[in-house]
Amino acid sequence: MRVLVLGHGKTGKLVAEVAAERGHSVHVLDAKENPNASALTPPFVAGFDVVIDFTAPEAVVQNMRAVLATGARMVVGTTGWYHRLADARGLVERKEAGLVYGTNFSVGVQVMLQMAKRMGELLKNAGYEFSIEETHHVTKLDSPSGTALTLANVVKSAAGLAEVPIKAHRMGDAAGLHVLQAKSAADKLVLTHEAHSRRGFAEGAVRAAEWLSTRKGCYDFQEIYTQM
Ligand SMILES: NC(=O)C1=CN([C@@H]2O[C@H](COP(=O)(O)OP(=O)(O)OC[C@H]3O[C@@H](n4cnc5c(N)ncnc54)[C@H](O)[C@@H]3O)[C@@H](O)[C@H]2O)C=CC1
Ligand SMILES: O=C(O)C1=N[C@H](C(=O)O)C[C@H](O)C1
């Protein structure tokens, strides 16, 4: 595949490496080469099979508009833009484009989400209080993390709760720690995922791009990760 990676930061760099290791031809644009999505003209985008975005919350919305408007395929790892999801979905449908988005592309977190759902179902109305803590590097722009918000939504709907509180911590270069706790008067149950590096995110994103390369439509990584 011809892959365009948007963002040459901590994660985008690894995505480019993993894509090259998996035999794809890779082109990378960072902020300087793509201000306000200006590089993403229809003829330029047409030169790629899939675009992968690991940029920033404001940049990703402009990038998605430019790429999806051409009917191209895009994998979005960037978080902090989900209030615009309905717009993105509409654009994908109108232009017959392809989009996979996800707050966390690591398989471990996907399994944690399944376990959190089960935990919520099994502990529903059983006297447990749920809470989430997440720890990330000090340069992270969004808070709480996209993954923590996804976890909270999964638990809320499984356990029938209005809210699950989230505490966000920022520390050094932490790649991503998510802890879900259910506490009762009698005991405590804890589910933890700790990323030791960003490699798992990058591998998941490249696999999602490979999966999307033969499809159209809008998909949450949660729905499709078992197909990779
Ligand atoms: N879904 C997932 O599995 C994961 C998601 N993320 C998310 O990915 C995003 C990026 O995270 P990091 O790599 O840690 O950030 P980072 O700050 O290290 O890298 C972002 C890069 O994007 C570049 N950029 C900004 N605007 C751009 C534009 N218009 N065009 C091209 N490049 C542009 C910046 O110059 C920077 O190099 C964040 O939203 C983060 O939450 C991060 C890791 C995993
Ligand atoms: O910014 C990060 O680093 C990460 N962001 C994602 C999130 O917001 O959940 C995924 C991962 O935790 C790393």
* CATH architecture verdict of the largest domain: 3-Layer(aba) Sandwich
Low-confidence stretches: none
Q: Which class do the helix and strand fractions yield?
A: alpha/beta
Order of helices and strands: EHEHEHEHEHEHEEEHEH
Biggest sheet, strands in spatial order?
2-1-3-4-5-10
CATH topology of the largest domain: Rossmann fold
Overall 3D form: elongated
Task: Please count the beta strands (DSSP E, at least 2 residues each).
Answer: 10
Note the quaternary state here. single chain
**How many domain units?**
2
Mean pLDDT: 98
Gyration radius from CA atoms, angstroms: 18 Å
Which CATH class of the largest domain applies here? Alpha Beta
What is the beta-strand fraction?
A: 15-25%
Helical region count? 8
Q: Which range best describes the helical content: under 10%, 10-25%, 25-40%, 40-55%, 55-70% or over 70%?
A: 25-40%
Pathway: Amino-acid biosynthesis; L-lysine biosynthesis via DAP pathway; (S)-tetrahydrodipicolinate from L-aspartate: step 4/4
Keywords: Amino-acid biosynthesis, Diaminopimelate biosynthesis, Lysine biosynthesis, NAD, NADP, Oxidoreductase
Protein name: 4-hydroxy-tetrahydrodipicolinate reductase
Family: Belongs to the DapB family.
